[in-house]
Write a structure and sequence with these properties.
Elements (H helix, E strand, L loop, with lengths): L35 E2 L15 E3 L9 E4 L4 E5 L14 E5 L5 E7 L16 E4 L2 E6 L5 E6 L5 E10 L6 E4 L6 H14 L7 E8 L5 E7 L12 E8 L7 H14 L3 H9 E6 L4 H6 L24 H15 L3 E12 L5 E6 L4 H7 L1 H9 L9 E3 L8 H8 L5 E8 L2 E3 L6 E3 L2 H21 L7 E3 L7 H13 L15 E3 L24 H21 L34 H17 L5 H10 L8
Parallel strand pairs: 4-6, 14-15, 14-16, 16-19, 17-18
Antiparallel strand pairs: 1-2, 2-5, 3-4, 5-11, 6-10, 7-8, 7-11, 9-10, 12-13, 13-15, 17-19, 20-21, 22-23
The chain binds zinc ion.
Zinc ion binds next to loops.
């Protein structure tokens, strides 16, 4: 994780210097409570310790009203989205002026979406000024129920005991990720990507209605594709169109950090594919602490089909750039992925489209299928393809009709709460780190996609050196004897029996393969390749450590045995242009080839993937 130098506890009030107020008039607090002190009835004068002070008048803050029920119980009202009173789910507020061991019950009484993960025992997160790491409130302290005293509405109650008088306690639905945090992160990312030179850029795509930046990050060269006639592949990713879906930003950060790293997968991807990423598409809504809306009260992901410059300048800018990329002769836009967080389902999954054209549909379902092989938290049962009329204004629906048939548009969803592992009903809550891991898994899925479809071809050729002769060995032996050296073991002098073309293997110390969830369901040359490249990397670093003319004469622990792979038969398939007949034809050819050689058949493997795709048993 890149350290941005941003203090996560610094819930910088946009209204510094204000005195504590008894009521929240909404002025200057954007409708949020503004250091509101809850005094018992009949009490006047200076607030005593234990008269809780509520505040949400800071960036991403949301708490609209507090009612004191009794000494121990408070009703809390989420502030509705700006100009959209029916949307109430995101909350984020602080409490201070607490008394040691004070115990309270908070009821959140106006959640607009009844069916949500609170039904699955999702709990809010809390941190305090002396303990800045977010923690989940234990399940036994929360209760989501229909309340007769609240007109039969579902209310979410949780109890909490304050254990430090001086601390400010912050409560939120999910880890906040503010506009300021992103603006602090991007320069750090830029600096860290300095080794990429022209292959990294950050530019201003558009300004929001309230003049906040919508950044566009480009990773990967924009030079013509390596294969002279092929178009350069483009993956377009965007996040935070819905401001309350903060996990989307952590996924996006994980993805960006891996893409700029020197990890071999990232390096190969950058050489072949260009990623264009918009980390925050609705910065006004994020700043204001809205759940889904912009400052104008619009749900951007229901308005793509009616986007205009005045109400939706950020969506308009995205449509413009996508149209240019789609029509370009030099680029091939492969993916548009819109990252969301889901409020009622667990795990990570994909929403896609259905098409009358069965071949287009088969191409469309390949990416989710590959995602299932790379992410342990993938929820196959939640992945869905539809063409509902109600979703006409979503990015995946509108953009797939706007752009050419080759473009695959998806909503990528990750639970706002947690995930279930295969065969288990226990929900493991996500953390900031596991959200970022999910972003890294997305990168791996792109790698899988492009290697499996042949857009990225890498070759590992095994070659055993046969030039060395007895006379040379004898010569070296004589020379060693002359200089009094011990005879070097023969195995230590053999050149690496591997030749990598177009590969720059250099593992990033910070982003290693080990800290990513990446499980293979099958044995592939790539798996072995990863193992070998690691050995190669070790050997390379060992080589650089010793200043000797003759390599591999060090006492360093250089691996002496290498797995020699058969040369993989990498059939180049482009699913974006192939029909079923083509696949069958190539498959037949491959079957014939296979009889005559021991080559690994990538095509059959992919073919198998497509045809075993069934609704629920992906893993
Ligand atoms: Zn969403």
């Amino acid at each position: 994780m890149i350290n941005t130098g941003y203090d996560p506890l610094q819930h910088t009030s946009v209204y510094h210097g204000k005195e504590d107020s008894d009521d929240s008039d909404g002025e200057g607090g954007l409708g949020n409570v503004n250091r509101q002190i809850m005094r018992p009835p009949g009490h006047s004068g200076k607030a005593k310790r234990g008269h809780l002070c509520f505040d949400a008048s800071f960036e991403c803050g949301n708490l609209g009203r507090v009612d004191l029920i009794n000494e121990f119980e408070y009703d809390l009202f989420i502030r509705p989205d700006t100009c959209s009173p029916r949307l109430r789910f995101w909350f984020n507020f602080t409490v201070d002026n607490v008394k040691l061991d004070q115990r309270v019950i908070f009821n959140i009484v106006n959640i607009s979406k009844e069916r949500n993960l609170f039904m699955e025992k999702m709990t809010p997160i809390v941190k305090s000024s002396s303990r800045p790491k977010w923690q989940r409130i234990p399940k036994k302290h929360v209760y989501y129920h229909k309340s007769t005293v609240h007109q039969g509405h579902y209310i979410f109650s949780f109890s909490f005991g304050f254990d430090k008088e001086e601390d400010i306690f912050q409560f939120a639905l999910a880890p906040p990720y503010s506009y300021s945090k992103l603006q602090a992160f991007l320069p750090v990312l830029d600096k860290k990507a300095s080794h990429l030179k022209e292959s990294f850029s950050r530019e201003l795509l558009a300004n929001s209605v309230q003049s906040r930046r919508v950044d566009l990050i480009t990773i990967g060269s924009l030079d013509p594709a390596p294969k002279s006639k092929a178009k350069r592949r483009i993956v377009f990713i965007m996040a935070r169109i819905h401001p309350g879906e903060t996990p989307a930003s952590f996924v996006c950060q994980g993805l960006l950090e891996l893409l700029i790293s020197s990890n071999s997968i990232a390096s190969i991807l950058r050489d072949n594919v260009t990623f264009k990423v918009i980390p925050m598409l609705n910065p006004d809504g994020v700043f204001l602490g809205n759940y889904r809306s912009t400052v104008m009260g619009t749900d951007l992901n229901r308005s793509w089909h009616v986007a205009n410059q005045w109400l939706h300048p950020t969506s308009k800018a995205v449509i413009d750039i996508l149209t240019i990329l789609d029509k370009s002769k030099d680029f091939q836009l492969d993916f548009v992925i819109d990252i969301h967080a889901h409020s009622s389902l667990t795990g990570c999954f994909v929403y896609g489209n259905t098409y009358g054209d069965v071949y287009r549909y088969e191409r469309h379902i390949l990416f989710p299928k590959l995602l299932a092989t790379t992410a342990d938290d993938y929820a196959a049962g939640n992945t869905m393809f539809n063409s509902d009329a109600t979703k006409a204004g979503t990015a995946r629906r509108y953009l797939c009709s706007l752009l050419s048939d080759k473009v695959n548009c998806y909503s990528f969803e990750i639970s706002i709460y947690g995930y279930k592992l295969k065969g288990s009903d226990t929900i493991i809550p996500y953390t900031e780190e596991s959200y970022m891991r999910c972003g890294r898994n997305l990168v791996r899925t792109f790698f899988e996609y492009y290697t499996n479809t042949g857009a990225i071809a890498f070759h590992i050729t095994a070659e055993v050196s046969s030039k060395r002769t007895r006379s040379r060995t004898a010569q070296i032996r004589r020379r060693n004897q002359k200089h009094g050296r011990n005879r070097t073991p023969l195995t230590g002098r053999i050149q690496a029996q591997l030749h990598f073309t177009n590969l720059n293997i250099n593992y990033d110390s910070e982003t290693s393969l080990e800290d990513c969830t990446y499980s293979y369901r099958y044995t592939s040359p790539r798996k072995a390749f990863d193992k070998i490249s690691e050995q190669y990397s070790l050997r390379k670093s060992a080589k650089s450590n010793i200043e000797q003319k003759h390599n591999f004469r060090s006492d360093s622990p250089i691996p002496t045995t290498y797995v020699v792979l058969p040369e993989p038969s990498l059939t180049v398939i482009d699913f974006n242009v192939m029909s079923r007949d083509d696949i069958d034809k190539v498959s037949k050819v491959n079957k014939i080839q296979k009889k005559s050689s021991q080559k690994f058949d990538f095509l059959q493997h992919i073919h198998q993937i497509i045809h075993t795709l069934s609704s629920s048993s992906l893993r």
